[in-house]
TrEMBL record:
Coiled coil: none annotated. It comes from Leifsonia williamsii. GO terms for molecular function: kinase activity. This is FGGY-family carbohydrate kinase. Residues 285-482 form the Carbohydrate kinase FGGY C-terminal domain.
């Protein structure tokens, strides 16, 4: 932070910042929470107010989805909660904001006709029904196209000759959809766009040669990609302003004025990188929630294509190797619910973080390799593990040691299992890391999940003060960056320089170095985990798939449960 910024901070109060709209509002649509975060745009480390809304995906007709009605009902409740929080803390209700940013789960498929009508239910990142398309595209384009990417969903619809393709006008992601409704502009931040179609680092937009290859393959069956995909913008660019209609969508009470600058909408992977100051080469981060993924900023291109790795970008457009696992801490949350109910039944109830704290502390007493137990957290399919569908399992042999400590250590190891398989591929590529950060609710119990992740990666892992704020804070920072860039008073800044000099200068990080026993124990666990995948495949092949439409309770990177 500059001396001038320090003086400005000292001379004003949070209420002054809110009244004068010296603010940036970040809204992120996570898997189970929609969260709003208001910061001081001059010093984004100052969080002025927050609000949130819990929601759930639904499994309908074998498709993971959210309704668009739920999108707007949820964001309105989250924004209303933020306004109430601001009034409670600072005695003032925001009537306008200086800048806004929208972030959401990456990938998936939202297809609209020319009138703006959704043609098929939103197909989220969690769906794994695009195997044929992903395989064909990976061969055609010469890069790994994961099952969850938007182009894989589009091409699967082409292969299946879906009727809606005759009416398709444009595609976008969840963040892009919300931004479009708020501003009238169909744009995406480059990080989110890189999960739709491969980006050319030289141009900062979709790779023109690969677009041409796809258009030739799909000619006559779907419009040209350049007419379907959103415009690509990089961090700091002007992505429009909040319209009167958009303000009413966020705040139906009429209390929010239009006109705020809106930054490019981003995916949760990009905002996680911002929230952990890991947008520069040789830095990386792990985000753990319903899914778990690692983002490692590359110094050079990968030597070859790996199905375990996506190549995406930072919000500034720098190439990133992404290890994305569909299954994160959901199964861990289910077990925590079992033990929470046991505590209630025994007459000594525990609630919220206290349940996780007790179970995580017990995991520290478990054996370094989990006592011979295996935990598979596969509620959904897992491409890295070669699974089209998931079956959560606990596996043990007669001579394994079933204790609470071993069970919980195995569950925590299970969260990191598939991630570790992908990270081993990066190790083989010789990718160097100076810093690895972690964020998500499961890291709030100090030193436990963080310690086990350090053992799994055999690398130091840092957790910042913002770990529980997550991507909503990260997109608020990007909104503040866009506001600063538009003002232009100090000349252009790089995103990495802005984070270093204006956001993270006063932050503290708690760093855990890998313990040798944890490294050896997790390595032994991972060997069993890899060999035991044959059991998981057999379970998926023989157990009947659930057709229930009841949403699966899942944890999030924000909020009160990991």
């Amino acid at each position: 932070m500059s001396p001038g910024e320090s003086a400005a901070r000292a001379a004003t109060t949070p209420a002054d910042a809110i009244r004068s709209a010296r603010t940036a509002l970040g809204i992120e649509f996570g898997s189970t929470r929609i969260k709003a975060c208001l910061v001081d745009a001059n010093d984004p480390s100052i969080v002025l107010a927050v609000g949130s809304h819990e929601w759930e995906n639904a499994y309908v007709d074998r498709t993971w989805t959210y309704s668009l009605d739920a999108v707007w009902a949820g964001v309105q409740e989250a924004y209303a909660a933020l306004v109430a929080d601001a009034e409670r803390k600072h005695g003032v209700r925001p009537s306008r904001v200086g800048a806004i940013g929208i972030s959401a789960m990456m990938h998936g498929y939202l297809a609209f006709d020319a009138a703006g009508k959704l043609l098929v239910p939103f197909r989220t990142w969690r769906n794994t029904s695009t195997g044929a398309a992903a395989a064909e595209l990976s061969e055609l384009l010469g890069v790994n196209i994961p099952l969850r990417w938007s182009i894989a969903h589009l091409h699967q619809a082409v292969l299946d000759a879906e009727a809606h393709l005759a009416s398709i006008d444009h595609l976008t992601t969840l963040a892009g959809y919300v931004h479009w409704r708020l501003t009238g502009r169909t744009v995406l931040g480059v990080g989110d766009a890189s999960g739709m179609f491969p980006i050319d680092p030289a141009t900062g937009t979709y790779d023109a040669d690969l677009v041409a290859r796809y258009d030739e393959r799909a000619a006559g069956r779907v419009p040209a990609l350049r007419d379907l995909l959103p415009e690509v913008l990089t961090a700091g660019e002007d992505a429009g302003e909040l319209t009167t209609e958009g303000a009413a969508l966020l705040d139906p009470s009429g209390g929010l004025e239009p006109g705020a600058l809106v930054c490019p909408p981003e995916g949760d992977a990009g905002t996680g990188m911002v929230a952990t100051d890991s947008v520069a080469p040789r830095t990386g981060n792990v985000s753990a929630g319903t899914s778990i993924f690692a983002m490692v900023v590359l110094e050079r291109p990968l030597q070859r294509v790996h199905h375990e790795l996506d190549v995406v970008t930072t919000p500034a457009g720098d190439p990133v190797a992404m290890v994305h696992c569909n299954n994160g801490a959901s199964e861990l949350a289910a077990w925590a619910g079992v033990f929470q109910r046991f505590a209630e039944a025994s007459g000594t109830p525990l609630h919220g973080d206290a349940v996780y704290d007790a179970l995580f502390r017990e995991a520290l007493a478990g054996e370094a390799d989990g006592g011979g137990l295996l935990a598979y957290n596969f509620l959904a399919g897992e491409p890295i593990a070669g699974l089209d569908e998931g079956r959560p399992l606990i596996v043990r042999t007669p001579d394994s040691r079933l204790t609470l400590g071993n069970l919980m250590r195995a569950q925590l190891y299970g969260v990191f299992g598939t991630l570790a398989l992908g990270m081993r591929v990066l190790d083989g590529e010789g990718v160097a890391l100076d810093r690895m950060f972690a964020h998500g609710g499961m890291f709030r119990t100090a030193g436990v999940a963080q310690r086990f992740l350090a053992g799994a990666l055999d690398a130091p892992v840092s957790v910042a003060e913002t770990a529980s704020e997550g991507g909503a804070w990260g997109i608020a920072v990007l909104a503040a960056f866009a506001k600063r860039q538009k003002a232009g008073s100090e000349g252009p800044l790089t995103l990495a320089g802005y984070l270093r000099d204006h956001v993270f200068g006063g932050f503290s990080f708690e760093t855990v170095v890998p313990h040798p026993d944890d490294v050896a124990g997790f390595a032994a666990y991972l060997d069993r985990y890899r060999e035991g995948l044959v059991i998981e495949r057999a379970a998926a092949a023989t157990a009947a798939a659930s057709t229930a439409s009841t949403p699966t309770p899942t944890p999030t990177t924000e909020g009160t449960t990991p």
